[in-house]
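agent> Task received from the user: take the single chain below, predict its 3D structure, and emit structure tokens. No templates, no multimer pairing.
agent> Plan: (1) validate residues, (2) run structure prediction, (3) serialize to tokens, (4) report one or two observations.
agent> Step 1 OK, no nonstandard residues flagged.
tool_call: predict_structure(input=
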Amino acid sequence: MKKILLLSLLAFFSTQAFAVTAEEKGLQIITELDKRDTGFGDSKAILKMRLINRKGDESLRSLKMKTLEVIGDGDKSLIIFNSPRDIKGTAFLSFTHALVPDEQWLYMPALKRVKRISSSNKSGPFLGSEYAFEDLTSFEVAKYGYKYLNDEEVEGIACYVIELIPKYEHSGYTREVAWIDKERYIAIKVDYYDRKNALLKTQLFKDYKQYLNQYWRAGEQLMSNHQNGKSTALIWEEYTFGMGLTDRNFDKNTLKRAR
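)
tool_result: status=success, residues=259
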């Protein structure tokens, strides 16, 4: 009897020693997600942005995006619009950071000047889309606090459900809830809650492809706004990696000449 009791106590304390809180588990999952997407170096892609109003009417934009991975800090990215004519040549440059405010600039050809996006305006819509300026920055682990909520399936995919609380100033969201694929550690769905903690938007990630035998990229992202009935789809094509991009390719002083 004493032996059984001793074994039970040992099993109990062993379990307690390895128990983790919901916050710790959430951080572990997100850290693994970040680890698996580190080391790609640089990339470029062609994409289409489809704007859909509440009546279902659509308008299409074409653009291209370049990204430079910055180890120890947030990534740098450059988006250039190719069409339609009224927005052609518009360029958006973003330097992501963790808790230090992101640096973002927008070049509008009609004004022929570069405008810096205020850190207090990152929650505003990006050029009439349902994406906010803050949605277009790279994901940085230190930007959020985390909490594991539960396990759940999304379209047959087993996922961890994680709550993210923004730590950075001027976020338009009180929290986000993300469904992370348990096998591939990639986002399948994200809910965004506004400053009143009401569900604002949902983003779905579809048609993932793997590049360089490691890095997963969605072929389509759909951001739906539950409050105004509008949505924006991003369709990604022609991903290329290892182009040898440097900081010079992301210089705000040459933003007007970006092509």
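agent> Step 4: summary for the user.
Residues 99 and 168 are 5 Å apart (CA to CA).
agent> Done.
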